Amino acid sequence: MNHPDDLEISRREFLVMGTAAVAVTMLPPLAEAQAPPAAPVVKPAAVKLAFNVNGKARELEVDTRTTLLDALREHLNLTGSKKGCDQGQCGACTVLVGGRRIVSCLTLAVMHQGDSITTIEGLGTPDHLHPMQAAFVKCDGFQCGYCTPGQICSAVAMLQEVKAGIPSHATSDLTAAPQLTPAELRERMSGNICRCGAYSNIAEAITEVAGRTA
Amino acid sequence: MKAFTFERANSPAEAAAAAVRNPGSRFIAGGTNLLDLMKLEIETPSHLIDVNGLALDKIEATAEGGLRIGALVRNTDLAADERVRRDYGVLARALVAGATGQLRNMATTAGNLLQRTRCPYFYDTNQPCNKRAPGSGCGAIGGFSRQHAIVGVSEACIATHPSDMAVAMRVLDAVVETIRPDGSTRSIPIAEFHRLPGDEPHIDHLLTPGELITAVTLPKPAGGKQIYLKVRDRASFAFALISVAAIIFPDGTGRVALGGVAHKPWRVEEAESEMPRGAKALTARLLAGAKPTPENAFKLKLVERALASVLAEAKGA
C-alpha cells in the first residue's frame, strides 16, 4: 500500500493536470500572456503555532503556507476532513473553529493561534456517534462518503446558526426567528456539495436531528 | 504558493506601518479570496500581515443615527445584527445572497469590498489579462463574456466586481474609513471607493499602499422598502449575472444600484428620477451608453425585467 503522503501528492498532481486540460479546451488560445509582476523572493518560513484540536492542546511548527486543512491532515493525521476542491467551493473540508463552521482549505494554520478547532474526529467516535453521525447512518445520507465529514460538521453548526437567529437567503421575514423549513435547510447547506447526489437523505438526516433538538 | 513571511498586527497603526516596512506585503483577514488567488500565484505577497487581532469587530451606533461597522465584522454577523435586519434590510439581503454559510463566517466587511474580480481570464494564468498582467491584453473581449460587464467598460477590461454587499452599501451611501501608515485617516464615499477599469484595470480601488480599512459607516436608516434581487445561474452559491439593490419610498421615488454589470457597484443618481415612470425608462437612463458584447447583451433586458419585478414588489404586487 502506498504511503499516505505519496497518495496525496499523486492525487494533487492528477487534479492539477485535469485543471490545465480543462483550461486549454475551454478557452481560446492566448496571445502573449505575461507572468504576474515579480514580488520579492522570500525563503520558506516556518512559524510555531499552538491551538486546541478536538479538546487537546497541540503545538506545531509549520511552513507559513500550510492551510488549516493541511495542518490537520498532514501534520496531525486527522484525515477525516477531506480535500475536495481546495478552493472553498465544495465544503468537504468544513471544520468548526470556535464552534463556527468554516472551510479549512481557505485559511492558513498560522491564522489560528489559540483557536479551538473541532473536526469530525472530535464530534463523535465509532463507539459514541454524534447524533448527526448516527442520523446520517440511519438515513443513508451518503454513498461514497467523501463529502460526509464536511456535511456533518456543517450541519451541526448550521443548526446552531438557525437557533442563534442568523438569517439566510431563504428566510422570508428578516425580523422573525428563522425556522428550518426544507428550503432553509437546502439553502443553508449549499456550501456542501455531494457528487453522489445523496441530498435527499442528507436533508432527511439533518431534519431528524433538528426535530429532536428543537 | 510562493513563500512568504508572516506576522500578527495588534493595532491598525501597527498594521499600516508593517505594510510600509515590508514592500510586497498584504493584509489578511478572512483570506477566502486572497488565499485562493495565492494558491494560483495570481497574488504573490512576500509578507502577510494578519489583522484578525485588531479590535475592529464591533457594530456601533454613530452620533448621526447610523451604524459604524468594524472592518473585521464577519458577513454572517453583519447580516444577523438586529439593527441591520430591521433598518438596512437591503444590506442583510445582499449579504445572505452571497457565498455560503461557511464563507460568510470567514469573510469580513473590508475584505468583501476588496474582492478581486471572478473573471475566468483573470483566474487563468495561461490567458492574457490586463488586470493580472498589465499590458498583456484582455482575453474576455472577443472571448467567453457572458458573465462580464456591460457598462463602464474599457478597451482594456470588461471584468465585473463580484460583491453583493458592496452593491447594497452603494445604495445606502456607505462611507469607507481608513488609516494610512503615517497615522492619518480618511473617509471615502463608497461611490468613489471602487474604480472603473479605464487603461489601468489592475487598480480596483482608491486605497494607497499600506492603507487599511478600519470601518464602513452607514448613514441613518433611509426607510422605504428595501429589496435586493439577485439573478444567477443557480439558486444558491453563484455570483450574480445581475443584481438590483433598491430602496423605494411609498410615493414611488427611490434609489437603485446594480451588481454584475460593471467594474464597480453601478449607480446613476440622475437616473433615479425616472423610477416613478417604470422599469423601461429607468433602465434606459441607468444603462445609457452600455457596450455589451454579443454574449452578454441579454443583461440589458435582464436588468429591465429585474427592475420591473423589484418595482412591482415595492408596490406590494
Question: What is this structure, in a nutshell?
Answer:
The complex is a heterodimer of chains A (214) and B (317). Chain A is of the alpha+beta class and 214 residues long.
Task: List strands and helices in order, with pairings.
The complex is a heterodimer of chains A (214) and B (317).
Chain A: H1 4-26, E1 46-53, E2 56-63, H2 68-75, E3 94-97, E4 100-103, E5 116-118, H3 120-123, H4 131-139, H5 148-163, H6 182-188, H7 199-213
Parallel strand pairs in A: 1-5
Antiparallel strand pairs in A: 1-2, 3-4, 3-5
Helix pairs in contact in A: 4-7
Chain B: E1 5-8, H1 12-21, E2 25-28, H2 34-39, E3 47-50, E4 59-61, E5 67-70, H3 75-80, H4 82-87, H5 89-96, H6 101-106, H7 109-113, H8 120-123, H9 165-171, E6 175-179, E7 185-189, H10 190-193, E8 212-218, E9 225-231, E10 242-248, E11 254-259, H11 279-286, H12 298-314
Parallel strand pairs in B: 1-3, 2-3
Antiparallel strand pairs in B: 4-5, 5-8, 6-7, 6-8, 9-10, 10-11
Notes on the protein architecture:
The complex is a heterodimer of chains A (214) and B (317). Chain A is an alpha+beta fold and 214 residues long. Chain A is 38% helix and 13% strand. Chain A has seven helices and five strands; from the N terminus they run H-E-E-H-E-E-E-H-H-H-H-H. Chain A has helices at residues 4-26, 68-75, 120-123, 131-139, 148-163, 182-188, 199-213; strands at residues 46-53, 56-63, 94-97, 100-103, 116-118. Chain A has a five-stranded mixed sheet, sandwiched between helices. Chain A is globular and about 50 Å long. Chain A starts with a helix and ends with a helix. By secondary structure, chain B is α+β, with helices and mostly antiparallel strands. Chain B has helices spanning 12-21, 34-39, 75-80, 82-87, 89-96, 101-106, 109-113, 120-123, 165-171, 190-193, 279-286, 298-314; strands spanning 5-8, 25-28, 47-50, 59-61, 67-70, 175-179, 185-189, 212-218, 225-231, 242-248, 254-259. Chain B has a five-stranded antiparallel sheet with strand order 4-5-8-6-7. A three-stranded parallel sheet of chain B has the order 1-3-2, covered by helices on one side. In chain B, strands 9-10-11 form a three-stranded antiparallel sheet, sandwiched between helices. In chain B, helix 5 (89-96) runs antiparallel to helix 9. The termini of chain B are far apart.
